[in-house]
Amino acid sequence: MIDALSKAAFGTLAGSTTLKRLASRYGMRGDGGFARRFVAGEHIDEAIAAARSVEAQGLSQTLDLLGESVASEVEASAATNAYLEMIPRIAEAAIGRNISIKLTQLGLDQSPDIAGRHLGTILARAHDEAFFVRVDMENSPYVEDTLTLVEAAWHEGLTNVGVVLQSALKRSESDLDRVLALGMRVRLVKGAYKEPASLAWQSKADVDAAYVRMLERLLAQGRFPAIATHDPAMIAETCRIAGTSGLAASAFEFQMLYGVRRDLQAALMRDGFGVRVYIPYGREWFPYFMRRLGERPANVGFVLKSLVRD
Ligand code: FAD
After folding, report:
1. Residue 174 CB-density burial (10 A; 0-12 exposed, 13-18 middle, 19+ buried)
2. Catalytic, out of 136, 175, 208, 276
3. Over the stretch 48-102, which tens digit does the pLDDT of each residue have?
4. Does the active-site annotation cover 206?
5. Are the C-beta atoms of 70 and 76 separated by less than 8 Å?
6. pTM, full prediction
7. Could you state, in order of their start, the residue ranges of all structural domains in the chain?
8. Whose CA is nearest to atom 8 of ligand 1?
9. Do the strands 275-281 and 60-65 form a parallel or antiparallel pair, or are they unpaired?
10. Is 125 a catalytic residue?
């Protein structure tokens, strides 16, 4: 039955406040909390410790303060301030200066103006401290506003920003034209959200085929593209294209999620590729965690085992 639960089912469960309340009691408890495999902790100190451990293995990292779909402008300002506090903590810790953010965390549901103002504030501070900021891509209703806001920041000279494109969305191949024309850095992903057939490829074969088409263009024309996937077939395709076109391994990087395919992260690094690990932390870990379960229902077994151990 567990295997039958899909991305869509986990997406629905992610909205359940009862489940969220139950999960928050156990998910981050001590070292055995079941969410700790995918989330570094609830506090910046834990995220920095995870980043140090990742860097000690020769990998690089990006830190994400979890949070999305805030309910008010006050919450969006609080999230913005939390990012502004995070920047000097990372600088003091002398770990890599790379962060990831979501625009619904900065007030995109309240208005694009609010999110744009908050994004500009974070990017300006990040720019002064030589940070790179990746704006994650959320589900389809937010794609156009996300691209527009990131492009606006870029045109204001805040070029320390990069965007994410999802191969599952049918529009992404033309969005790639837009961002390639600017010279903006792109993280290529398959897409974590359940989307309607009118907007998104539904089969793995179609999502993968679009991924490869976008990959070919990014490796040929993109600026330091991030190939974010755990799929060995997509990784092999990247290595094949790079090999046949004589592209140096230093011209792009692979990215993977904290706690996912650590064996593959290490193997790619040993083969001379750059690998960046996306390290999420913070109290708002529940929706992120549910998306990870939805991607691989076998992860549910891992959660159940850790609960039984308790
Ligand atoms: P899949 O075909 O889903 O998986 C391939 C194989 O990878 C699986 O067979 C399994 O072995 C392994 N695997 C994949 N997921 C898991 C998991 N959760 N647990 C254990 N094993 C797993 N999505 C967005 O929509 N917006 C973003 O901004 C975004 N940012 C991302 C940043 C990074 C660094 C990464 C790695 C992913 C990001 N994603 C984002 C998620 C992405 O869209 C996919 O949902 C996710 O990466 C799974 O797709 P896949 O390419 O790994 O391939």
Report:
1. exposed
2. 136
3. 999 999 999 999 999 999 998 999 999 999 999 999 999 999 999 999 999 999 9
4. no
5. yes
6. 0.93
7. 1-38+297-310, 40-284
8. 231
9. parallel
10. no
